[in-house]
Amino acid sequence: MRIVKELGLLGPRDRLTADVAKALFQRFEEPLSDGDISIIARLTHLDDEALRVMAPKVTFLGQAQDFWLSTVYGPADDARKDAFLRELSLSAPPPNDPWLINGDFNLIYESRDNSNINLNRRTALFRFENFWPSFPCFHATVERAWKRTERSSCPFQRLATKMARTARELKKWSKSFFSQARLHFHVAAEIVLRLDVAQERRRLSDAEQALRKLLKLRLLGLAALERARRRQASRLIWLRLGDAGTKFFHAKATSRKRKNFIQCLRVGGDLLTVHEHKEEAIHNHFKLSMGSRIERSLQVDWSIFNLPSVQNRGLDNPFSQEEVWEAIKASPAEKAPGPDGFSGTFYRACWHIIKEDIMATFTSFDNLSRGDFAKLNTTLIILLPKKDGASTIQDYRPISLIHSVAKLISKVLSRRLSVVISTIISPAQSAFLRSKSTQDSFLYVQNIVRSLHRKKQPALLLKIDIAKAFDSVSWEYLLEVMQQLRFPARWRDWVSMLLCTASSAVLLNGATGCYFTHQRGLRQGDSLSPLLFIIAIDTLHRLLQKATELQAIAPLPGRGIPLRVSLYADDAVIFANPAAEEITALMAILHDFGRASGLLINPSKSTAAPIRCDGVDLHHILTAFGGKVVAFPLTYLGLPITLSRLKLVHIQFILDRIRARLAGWKGKLLNIAGRRVLVRNVLSALPTFALSVLRAPRNFFEEIDRARRRFLWAQEDGELGGGKSKVNWPTVCSPLENGGLGILDLNRFSRALRLRWLWLQWTSNDRPWQGRNLPCDEVDRELFTASTTVTLGNGATASFWHCSWTGSGSLKTLFPSLFKHSRRKQRSVRDALRNNTWVADLAHGSNSHLWEDAIRLHRWLQDRDLQPQAESADTITWNLEASQTYSARSAYNAQFQGRLTSDFNKLIWRTWAPPRLKIFGWLVLRNRLWCNDRLQRRGWPNGYFCQLCLRNLETSVHLFWECPMMLQIWTYAASRAGCASLSPSLWATKAGSAEKITAMIGAAQPLQRKATKTMIILMLWEIWKHRNDCTFTGKQAHIHDVQCAITRTVELWRQAGAFFLEHPFWDPP
Predict the structure, then answer these.
(1) Dihedral of CA 980/984/987/992: which sign?
(2) Where are the beta strands (DSSP E) in 873-980?
(3) CB 565 within 8 A of CB 428
(4) Would you say 157 and 371 are in contact if contact means Cβ atoms under 8 Å apart?
(5) C-beta of residue 394 within 8 angstroms of C-beta of residue 367
(6) Is the same domain home to 758 and 835?
(7) N or C: which end of the chain has fewer CB within 10 A?
């Protein structure tokens, strides 16, 4: 090949390039097989003698020097790479001739040769796709692989083999079923596009219409498939598939991978960038912390404690199939899988196939037959950055992705333990207990700090950091604690078997490292680990309590401080007196506890906050502490502890977190339904933890609402004004029953959450904060009183003035003047009625009306004979729930009582329409679409006339109900069988959209009303789409186009699940 004008490469199955090649080169032949690369050129002269098998000799026009050209496509199989390189070396030209080699070698020389963060160094791990069970042949594939004969007699080995075999078969099935999905999607889209273009010029034939209909359905299915795959990769389990497009899920998954990718690590003074070096450093780190055993240098003298005994409510009972199935249903279905690749969805979908082998494994585990259980107890450790710019291993949080079988066993055990663990855990601990919450610890610490500050009593708050808490728990210590707490021996053996057979490997940037066997610690990500950890650390409270009793450390100043330590898992707060001797003794106790349990404190991360310590030499006092001295406010459990009233600056971090979640690209890639879900489920949930225990200032709610409103209506930062929000925010934040979108009103919701403390004050006497201030204002208490009824017992708990113990409301409401003049407004009923003490509490004066009211109240009480009963306690019931128990939902909805209810809920929300079309219907009913009349009122550009009839001003009522063209659509729809209720004659005299839709639904048969409502929304949507096409693209209005669109959409909705949706339209001619 002497002279070449054009030179190119053609890859395998590159159809677009092939078509171009056919057009340019008449002799181009097809087809190409996998792995082929062809050289295509336009020749002016061919020298046959210069053409060799692999390396033609090339001379470019106008250049004298020629060279040899070899185009290669290396094998992907590692076993064939050596032979490929030998063959390439044999085809080398003479030594002095230039040689150009191009193509794909399928080889990696160094990691920096490829900057792709998804560089695949090993065979990709199997990952079960949660959408697989909905496709044909899935269950048959699983059953065929699972039921194959397995000779092993060990249940563990048999199950491991079956799971591995099923994973291989599912990979093959997935590859054959889904590998060409993207190619098919683009081919189908191209054909549909060409048919649409042709339809603009001529009428399609029957065969072409049938093909287009078939491909359109195929496109929707393929798009849904790709969207489901991207959703699982994005880990956005709160967002439904229909609420966001594939681009959003893809962008989220890409962002998550980019954030979690570890580019480099700083170990000591070295910066590691090579993958192998990073992998080795991380492996050594975790092997040292979890894979090495440290001998205990101290033992705990358990005889000094009066330890409780665990109530053995079936802790060591044999496992039943019902119990395992309940654990499967209670487990998250879409969480990231472990080394085996199977998620909870697999167990739910294939339980009828796999349950026998699963139960055989549980039986073998019950019998403590270790066998090959280690194969089912493996873990992948992934590292998630704790902060931006993470550079060291300590800047990452290790999360264990546990083998699904070991995770299921742990789930069953944790469900058993969670029922009885509250009986053996001290009040100082509030983590992972059903009867307690995180806010209990925070509220207790906040009250103690403010009480000491208010009383001007010097004290120290020590915030203790435990180094590698979960990773460093001594197994011997843990089993010893459980033995002292009278756990059954079989239970302890089960826990021991789970711990000592565990092994882990680090999953770094998609590559699995070497496994190491655990010698200590608890895996983060195991449902049993948190419960075992709080059992282990609870001894610290008992040690401090005993030290106070033995006067090794002095009691705290003042009265009413029952606990000097507050624990939430590994977050510990200890109150101490500002004395050097006490700090030294306290640190000795902590140090000895760490030597006995493995839970050593980290002084460099521990802090001390002084309370009223003016004039105290803190430097001398805290010499033994070793931590930093900080001032209030300080953060505990993610919330600010302040000495005075909460300010916006103290919770600014919550606003920053919300704004960070509202990245601009999210609003652009989500439709209105997706944005509503994000606002409801994510943005409204972020501040919930804080709002339940803090009384936030009003401007805090205003800032959050501004961010939520902007995101919901897809507004940029500079577009907040000018009336561009389609509906005012108070209406949007109303419940669906009141005509809103159901987005939480955070101010009202925070009030509903705070009522929980008033309820617990009555129903839970073991809370450490009992008898102290609650984060509730007067409005909260009035709402609580109106929502509850107190049944009088001994009268010791019920408030004389505040509680509804009379059956007619609170006395505070019935006799406001008496309440105003009472000097003891917090008296209980028992104390107030004893010798009519409530009368003596009234302020003296000559107000005759006051004493008239007092006499009236006295007679009123005598007439009802309301006297305390000494043998029973006061009880309270919640009036807003059938269960008579407090719920935040009912407390929230109660604040909307008295508002007008709306028919929007039954008109649009209870239909088969997709969520975004339901919101469109909501805007139609509220007359909040941007029709020309509303644009004109705001002085914005508009076309004035209706774009369909070009006769009248375009309003929402005219466009959908009065336009002559649209009336024909409704008339045609009504003429079809089953759709007579859509006739304009039924609703022409009605005033607004809601009245017209109500008339149509009322005229339909009861069994057809849901279909009728769905059909109405569909028609409104297609009319609006056609209007937009005419307005923004200049398309001519045509009834035929609307009919075609409605017909196609009806058919698609029916296939998507709206099975009873009537088809009122004929196939358009």
Answers:
(1) positive
(2) 875-878
(3) yes
(4) yes
(5) no
(6) yes
(7) C
